[in-house]
Amino acid sequence: MNSFRLITTYSPWLILACLAVGALYAWLLYSKRTPWSKGINYTLAMVRFVVVSFLCFLLLGPLVRYVSNSTQKPTIVFAVDNSQSVSLFSDSLQLQQAEQGLQQLRNRLQDKGYSTAVRALGASRPPQDLGQLQYEEEATNLSQLLQQVRTDFEQQNLAGVVLLSDGIVNQGTSPAYANYNYTIYPVAVGDTIPKKDIILSSLRYNKVNYSGNRFPLEAELQHQGFANAPVTVQLKENGKVLDRKTVSLKPGQPIQQVPFQVMAGGLGKRHYEVEVLPQQGEFTTLNNTKHAYIDVVKGKIKILVAAAAPHPDIKALRAAIESNENYETTLFIPGLTTLKQQDYDVAVLHQLPGRTAGGEAALNLVRQKNLPALYILGPQSDIGGFNRLNVGIRIQTPGQSDEVTSVFNPNFSTFKVAEEATERLQQYPPAMVPYGDYQLTPNTETVLYQQVGRVRTNKPLLTVQTIGDKRNAALLASGTWQWRITEAANHENSAVYDKLITNLMQLLTAPRNKKRLNVYPVQNEYTSSDEIRFEAEAYNEALEPIYGQNITLKVTGAKGAARSFNFANGENQSGVNIGSLPGGSYTYTASARINGSLQQDKGEFVVEELQLEALHAVADHNLLYQLGSNTGSRLYYPAQLQQLEEDILGAENKDLIYSSESLHDLVDMKWLFFVILALVCAEWFVRKYNGSY
After folding, report:
1. Would you say 502 and 323 are in contact if contact means Cβ atoms under 8 Å apart?
2. Which run of H or of E encompasses 52?
């Protein structure tokens, strides 16, 4: 039902004045003798009266208030647990009976004035009919399903939700602890009788391991009805059995561990399979297998920290470096420790070369192994010897020193620093640097500049030199241990200092990236229910990003099956979505022709098989009972749908009437202008037609 009324911004008594003005105007104009009849004269006077009175009325600023009412029928949503466990462990006849009964209930509710809808677990598009359900979801998150219903029908007359489920939840929070503003009518399917079964519930392992090391992989077993039975658990890789263990399942022990020790050989993604051999009388063997995907990487990066003499900087540097678990340091101080002859990846040389003898062994090792190095200058440094190393910077100094603070170079983009880095760098205490002139080679970048007091200079404090695939760095300050302590005291951590040092180590150990095509999955690991996305970066000869390049991506599974995709890289990194894949280890190759030159990239990623739905074969009807009880309902079974219908109708859900009100200026209505114009034109035409003006 819609209605409207007029409202004026002035006193309604002024309407009488508007009528008086209109009447006076009409009387003055039409009280004289006229050449037409009295009937026409009265009609013209009335038209003039209406037009003038209405124009005066518009001066009062009248408003039109519209009130519109709409009616919403009560809505019943049929929410379905569309997971694999429902079809795997429910009686097929019972499930079919439930689907048909709920569809019939939906039709009857619609006939009785209810609005209905269907929502399914994990469905991107809501199914139109309950018979369209496939029960293919690999995980059950009932809390998400019920929250989705609440979001979708937030502005509607939601009277209740009929939930078809077995009550098994293996993702998200338990829905029993949430508050819902609608009634939930749970319909229970599945079997609550424990089955005789052995379950490989989980695998525990480190996802990243170092090549050449043994790592633990622990399987966790659960069982029902197999007390004291011997079972065999075997570990396989690519179908080959690596290890086999036989254990006796202990009664009354809910979880039993079976440990394996695995040698991490080679590099890259490794796929291991743990299997419990089937036993006579097992209800299902779907939950007897689990997969582990291990990323085998090179051993820890070994860093030589050598110094001319003991110094507090050494401890700060080692603590910062070892904040990254992939790095380990070896200390060498002449006269105190022995230089270990091993394969180092990078060196940190504190005040080497020095003014005193003893550090030549470390310098010779760096020279012989052609190691990238971070050189740190201090009062004991031999500046002449440092200049002869040709590490990207030469210093001419009269032997004096200066106190400076550090400022980050905003044009340095080889690695990123934290957002709070600029603020924290300004809080660092001054450090001692050689005073003099600095000359940088063309292949050297400045990371930090020197600042004297409040004056920022162009003198470098930290530099990085790149020669081919090798890099060197030079930190021209000693006493930086105070930086780390000050940052930790002010902010309860030394994140900026530690990140700066570890970034330097990463930069020195990594070869220069000359790739002009970089294609990569958004994640290194996915589950079989995830959609897998790839993004791409393309660069010209100057290593500047370019867009719109046509890229061919080929994804290959462990069994050799390959799929190809074509896409173009965009500035907004839209990438390509290749959909979901079954569990396993995958490799990919990508190619693109950039400015006539063929560029390629490759890599690998892992898709983990969830297998969550096969872990529990026993329905949890107690959870469904709690859901119904918490919302003022009860638990129903497929044979009780008639009672469910009676309870829904007995709730006497009412239609909701929504009212909306709007105000509009009467003068803004264009059709009134044309009405007034028509009246004025008609009056003028009649007067002209009868021989007057």
Report:
1. yes
2. helix 38-58
Query: Which phi and psi angles does 232 have, rounded to 5°?
Result: -105, 130
In the 8-state DSSP scheme, what is residue 1?
A: -
* Termini Cα distance of the chain: 48
Residues in Cβ contact with 390 at an 8 Å cutoff, skipping those fewer than 6 apart = 441
Threshold 0.85, pTM exceeds: no
Asked if residues 234 and 274 have their Cβ atoms less than 8 Å apart, the reply is yes
Q: Where are the beta strands (DSSP E) in 141-205?
A: 158-165, 183-188, 197-205
Question: pLDDT of 91-150, one tens digit each?
Answer: 888 888 888 889 999 999 989 888 998 888 876 677 777 777 788 777 788 888 888 888
Distances (CA, A) of 128 to 87, 106, 116, 685: 20, 12, 10, 63
Q: H/E/C letters for each residue in 508-537?
A: HHCCCCCCCEEEEECCCEEECCCCEEEEEE
Q: What is the dihedral sign for C-alpha 435, 437, 440, 445?
A: positive
CA distance 210 to 267: 9
pLDDT per position as a tens digit, 406-433? 999 988 877 767 678 888 988 899 999 9
Beta-carbon neighbour count of residue 101 at 10 Å? 20
| 3-state helix/strand/coil string of 267-287 | CEEEEEEEEECCCCCCCCCCC
**Rounded CA gap, 578 and 563, in Å?**
9
Q: How far apart are CA 359 and CA 366, in angstroms?
A: 11
Of 393, 467, 471, residue with least CA distance to 433: 393
- What backbone phi and psi angles, to 5 degrees, belong to 591? -145, 150
Rg, Å, the chain Cα set: 40
Give whole-number Cα distances, 158 to 110, 177, 601, in Å. 14, 21, 53
Asked whether 133 and 127 are in contact (CB, 8 A), the reply is yes
- One DSSP character per residue, 359-388 reads -HHHHHHHHHHT--EEEE--TTB-HHHHHH
Distance CA 83, CA 625 (A): 19
187 burial (CB, 10 Å; 0-12 / 13-18 / 19+) is: buried
Q: Are 528 and 583 in contact (CB under 8 A)?
A: yes
